[in-house]
Every structure is written in C-alpha cells, then in structure tokens.
Amino acid sequence: MPSSKSMLLFMCFVFGSLMQSMKAQDPSKLTLDYYTKTCPHAQQIVRTEMECFVRAEQRNAAIMLRLHFHDCFVQGCDGSVLLDDTATLIGEKQAEQNVNSLKGFDLVDKIKEKLEAECPGVVTCADLLAIAARDAVELVGGPYWDVPVGRLDSKTASLDLANTDIPTAQQGLLTLISKFWAKGLSATDMVALVGSHTIGFARCANYRDRIYGDFEQTSKYNPSSETYLSKVKETCPLDGGDDNISAMDYATPAAFDNAFYEQLIKGEGLLNSDQEMWSSVVGSQTADLVNKYWADPGLFFKQFSDSMVKMGNITNPEGGEVRKNCRFVNT
After folding, report:
1. Of 99, 134, 166, 306, which residue is least crowded by CB atoms under 10 Å?
2. Plant heme peroxidase family profile domain: which residues (predicted)?
3. In a 3-state reduction of DSSP, which class is residue 262?
4. Of 70, 151, 208, 323, which is the active-site residue?
C-alpha cells in the first residue's frame, strides 16, 4: 500500500495535470446542429456506411471505436491519428500502441468519400470518427447518445505524445488514472470507457505477461477460469504468435453489454490494465464502480454515454481545418 505522502504527491500531480489539460479544452464551439444547414445528411451518411461495415464484419464496430479513443488521447479529438507519414510530417500510426493495433483507416476513407460527394469541404475527419464511434456502439447493442460536432482536423500529429499519453495494457492503476485525469477524465469516466473492451480484441503481445503472470492468483485458481486460461494460452504461447488475438469479453464478444465487468470480478480480465480496476490494492473506488456497472447495465450505459461525450469534447487548442482526405493535411 502506498504511503500517505506518496499518495498526496500523486494527487498533486494529477490535479496539476488536470488543470493544465482543462485549459487546453474548449468544447464551447461544439453543437448538435453544427451541420444542420451545411450538410444536413452528414450523420445519416456515416450511419449508413457503418451499418454496412458492421454487417460485413462485427469487429468493425470495435475497430472504429478504438480509432476515436486513440485520436482523442493525443492532441484532443482532431483526426491526427488518421494522418499518414509524409516527407514533412510524422504521423501517429507507428506509435507503440497503434502500429500493430489500429485498423479501419480504409473504412474512414470510404465514409469520407461519401461525405465529400455530398458536402465537399464541410465535415471534418474528427467529427466523422466521433459519429462513427457512436454508431458502432449502438449497432452492436450499446447505447445511443447525441454527438456534439464542430471539431477541426489538426494540421499536425505527435508520435511522441502517442507513445506517452495513450494508456498501455501493462500499466498499473495509478498510472492509468493519471493518464485519464490528465485529459480531464475522472476515474469514473475511465472505468466506464474501458467497458468498451466488451467488444474489443487484444493482441497476444499485450496480454502474454498477464496470462503467464498473476492470472491464476486473481482468478483464485477457479476450475472454470483454468479452462479459459488454457484456451487463451493456446492462442498466445510463451514464444511467438504476437499478433494472435483474443476477445477481451469471452462471454459475449460481439455484443456491447456489461459482461466484461463480470470477468473482472471473477479475476479473469485479459489485460493487466483492466484487471487492475478490480484487483489493485489502491482500487477501492474503481472496484466499487466495476461492481455497480455489472449489477446495473442501465447505469453503465448512461455513464458510458456521458463519458464518451466528455471525451469527445476534448478539442485541439491549435485549431485546424477540414481535410479533403483524412490521411493528409490540405495543400
């Protein structure tokens, strides 16, 4: 258990980071009717494309949701995650948490093409991601929420920030909380947002240490947990198979629900960062939230929706443009 002094220093750091990040956020320009006159069918266009993508492959829902998360954690929700490397710009796609993980860029291209055909130079890539993430969740059984729009696309990207700001699977609870708080997101937001792992898949490289580490201790050597552990070890051997994937919610991997939290309560979280919310010795608050979200799916859906809007309101103070192609800044 950390000393009271270390906890005080940690909270001071978190508070300072929070204040700094809040100054950089200006969601006041985001509105629900931003495109009402300039592109009234924008959200329907995104919805129609997402319906096609998810119908073709249900994993596309998690893929699009993940893109929005990783975008918002670097410079704010500004579409920087979509930028390709060029001779004059280093993008974020080669960051440690992105390089073998993020997909769906071709899906974004297809949606953008439809939007440009309908309303040239109007709808930003950042807004496209925010709307698509909402539709992705609803299309696999999750909640609906109104998405404020009016974000601008950044003219820059930051590989360094992508490597430092995006939470990783191996990090402990205090580090995870500090990363969310630095973006103006509370521990309550964090536990709700991580619930999106109910439709997510993880690479073996990100959960190998967990299943060959303390998994048996957190699951208390339960026979049913041992069966599950044997299956994921088949998928993820000690050596090799880094890109093999497993569902983070083995019970209902194709449905957005609250079953993910039951896995944490059983001590069966696939990622160390997920299990920390229940098992960490400093996680009484997060463990209580895990319990509540498992007991009350309506509460989870409500908080997830609120937290998605809150995260989506993180904007880039540098401003930007409306990209014609989400992969490149305008020339």
Report:
1. 99
2. 29-330
3. helix
4. 70
